[in-house]
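dumping this here before i forget
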Amino acid sequence: MEFENVTLLSKSAELSPANWIRKYLFSKRFPKAKMSPINIDTFNELNKIGVNLNQLAKLANSGRLEGDITFFLMKLNEHLTKIKMLLLDDSETNKG
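structure:
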């Protein structure tokens, strides 16, 4: 999972994963994403969806939801995480 996150972040900065890690280690800041900044409301809405998915997954894992929904909830959560990583613009970290 960590490798996937680094790969997504490095792609957004148009760097190889190794170069992205080097820049982060030496500057203690995430390399600036080359993509355009996202609307913060969109990111917050995606985060709310993720929270709801996590709550549903907990219910499913506890047996309080009927049917085999757990697999689909986990896949949806994975996709949501990837979308958030692609949209992430860590511009606040790069200031100063």
